[in-house]
Write a structure and sequence with these properties.
The protein is α/β, with parallel strands linked by helices. About 35% of the residues lie in helices and about 15% in strands. It has 3 domains: about 45-65 and about 115-200, Rossmann fold, CATH 3.40.50; about 80-110 and about 335-445, Cobalt-precorrin-4 Transmethylase, domain 1, CATH 3.40.1010.20; about 205-335, 4-hydroxy-3-methylbut-2-enyl diphosphate reductase, catalytic domain (Cobalt-precorrin-4 Transmethylase, domain 1, 3-Layer(aba) Sandwich). The chain has 16 helices and 17 strands. The strands form 4 sheets. Strands 1-7-6-4-5 form a 5-stranded parallel beta sheet. The protein has a 5-stranded mixed beta sheet with strand order 2-3-17-12-13, sandwiched between helices. A 4-stranded parallel beta sheet has the order 9-8-10-11, sandwiched between helices. It is globular. Belongs to the IspH family.
Length: about 475
């Protein structure tokens, strides 16, 4: 049996029927392309489907905590540090002094529980199926070094070539890994039918958002999703909704609220959100009852502000007594995202900090928001995805700004002068990436720096609880 073509953003209710000229090609596109594309899909109930996966005997959604896989993760530097610089900093108040350089590590930083869990499950899948072909339906997380390690283990990442994803090479009996961001309803359905072994590493916080969107649908609410319409997580979340519109920030949310209160130009609305709404969306009828959901990596404060904006709008339009009939809010802000943002707010308020380094994948949404916090404070902040962006000999750094621009800065450090550097990392960033960046910093100040001697300091940080 071959996988049918499908659209990654297609919802289970009110889906329009589309035909594909390449029925064997599985199309998983950003929302804009999915709406405009030509694919054939089935109406799928997300909640029922997710429950049915457990009954296949081919579905795994929990790690086994296999010690061999853990050892391999430690060897590859894709887990928590237990003996390196970051591990040693944890034992001394997240501080480190190396000559004139003082490093302050954010109180909450780096790998979150859901990301570490996803990487662990991918390693365990390879250990459990050494002879089988393994595929990931997207990058397992947004970290280039981790994804490269998976490729070296012959785990193929199926990437979008601009025309969708080609799953035709995946056969029954192969192993398919769903990444931490999740997979669309249609992907889950088609791979269930395909007869593959499924390893679902979806972060439970992402699944919590899916439950919220599912509730919106069952209660006939339109989902207003705070997120980026082309982000893998938001594409998956939207697939669980019947009707949805995706807003990326307060400005777009205000536009939607103004339309709810005062009406407006329907064609303008449809053009504005053409990339970010469900098929057949009608703003005149589908914004009378709305529920808020969010991409888990968005700015916590912005999601909260959008929630208050929507609540005030519906209260103004329908009155306090009928608010619950027109607005639905469920708590879906990710603890890990919130903790890392709060820790950075504390750090940028520290008068001793001279500059910031943010470490994380350049396509990582949560890392971009950490950089955004530092930039808004007016603090010199350098976002790198790896130590490879730093040239020690020329004292040059190639770094990214919060809104996408790559910038090369020369003489970004001043050897010989005391400096206090704050450092944090995105939720998809292993500790070793931070350690390698700091190694380069220390080399700029002292060309003879030979590294920090490893010292086992005990277990990795306690995992955050699953909610």
């Amino acid at each position: 049996m071959q996988l049918k073509a499908f659209s990654g953003a297609q919802s289970r209710v009110g889906a329009s029927t589309r035909r594909s000229t390449k029925p064997s090609r599985c199309v998983v596109l950003p929302v804009a392309q999915a709406v405009a594309g030509t694919t054939e899909t089935n109406v799928v109930d997300g909640r029922t489907l997710r429950r049915s996966l457990n009954q296949t005997g081919r579905y795994v959604r929990q790690p086994t905590n296999d010690p061999v896989s853990q050892s391999k993760m430690d060897e590859h530097g894709v887990g928590y540090s237990t003996s390196g610089l970051v591990a040693q900093m944890r034992t001394q108040g997240n501080l480190w002094k190396e000559g004139p350089v003082t490093i302050k590590l954010a109180k909450a930083y780096g790998y979150c529980w859901g990301v570490e869990r996803a990487v662990r499950m991918a390693y365990e899948a390879r250990q459990a199926h050494p002879e089988k072909k393994l595929f990931v339906t997207n990058e397992i997380i947004h970290n280039p070094e981790v994804n490269q390690r998976l490729k070296e283990m012959n785990i193929e990442i199926v990437e979008d070539d601009g025309k969708g994803k080609d799953y035709t090479k995946i056969q029954g009996g192969d192993v398919v890994i769903f990444p931490a961001f999740g997979a669309t309803v249609q992907e889950l359905s088609d791979f269930k039918s395909k007869g593959v072994q499924m390893v679902d590493t979806t972060c439970p916080w992402v699944a919590k958002v899916w439950n919220s969107v599912d509730t919106h649908t069952r209660k006939s609410f339109t989902s207003v999703i705070h997120g980026k319409y082309s982000h893998e997580e938001t594409i998956a979340t939207a697939s669980f909704a019947s009707n949805y519109v995706i807003v990326k920030d307060l400005k777009e949310s205000q536009y939607v609220c103004d339309y709810i209160l005062n009406g407006g130009n329907r064609e303008e609305f449809l053009a504005k959100f053409s990339n970010a709404m469900s098929a057949g969306f009608d703003p005149d009828t589908m914004l009378q009852r709305v529920g808020l959901a969010n991409q888990t990596t968005m700015l916590k404060g912005e999601t909260e502000a959008i929630g208050k904006m929507l609540e005030k709008t519906m209260m103004t339009k329908y009155g306090p007594a009928k608010l619950n009939e027109h607005f639905l809010l469920m708590e879906t802000i990710c603890d890990a995202t919130q903790e890392r943002q709060d820790a950075l707010y504390d750090m940028v308020a520290d008068p001793e900090i001279d500059l910031m380094i943010v470490v994380g994948g350049f396509n990582s949404s949560n890392t971009s928001h950490l950089q955004e916090i530092a930039e808004h404070k007016g603090l010199a902040s350098f976002w790198v995805d790896s130590a490879g962006r730093i040239d020690v000999d020329s004292n040059t750094i190639l770094h990214k700004l919060a809104h996408g621009e790559l910038k090369e800065t020369k003489a970004w450090l001043t050897p010989g002068e005391p400096v206090t550097i704050g450092i944090t990392s995105g939720a998809s960033t292993p500790d070793r990436a931070v350690e390698e960046v700091l190694h380069k910093v220390f080399k700029i100040y002292d060309p003879n720096f030979g590294g920090v001697a490893p010292k086992f300091v005990g277990a990795a940080p306690a995992h955050e609880e699953e909610h």
